[in-house]
Amino acid sequence: MQLDQLFFNGFESLIRSVVVGVLAYIALLVTLRITGKRTLAKLNAFDLIVTVALGSTLATALLSKDTVLVEGVLALLLLCGLQYCVSWLSVRSKWVRDLVKSEPCLVVHNGKALHAALKKERLTIDEIQAALRAAQLHDISEADAVVLETNGKLSVIPRSETFTAETLPGIRPNAASDS
Questions:
Q1: Mean pLDDT along residues 7-28
Q2: Rounded to whole angstroms, how far apart are CA atoms 142 and 38?
Q3: Are 109 and 145 in contact (CB under 8 A)?
Q4: The pTM is what?
């Protein structure tokens, strides 16, 4: 490659980038509109993977001269279609739901860190403390519970008189036994 081609390779490649970029963007928007909000929801690891794959596919269609627009659009449709099918099946089948989604996990209970749960989920006490600060709590003892949600976020439940274990449906009960 010559030095002058490093910065400018001619108007043809610029025009291709603009045309393919606009058309691929429109195709992606239409596809996302058809498949629904869930496609980009990032509710769990599976959703995140699809979101990253969509971005990578769009970039490849836009920048690779070896990929024609129809191939890029087909790849976007395929990813969105698969995401739609998996989410549709997960609503209707517990087996599929268990396959693609993780469970929320209790990592703090009654103001005490559940070290076995923290270790299993590969969380540090510093990450718990950051979540507590975000919830305007100063100490772990001020939290009735901290839950690692299926999307990777930490939910903090401050101390209250109404909190019970039943307040957290769907949370792994065995994690609370580590005190």
A1: 85
A2: 34
A3: yes
A4: 0.65
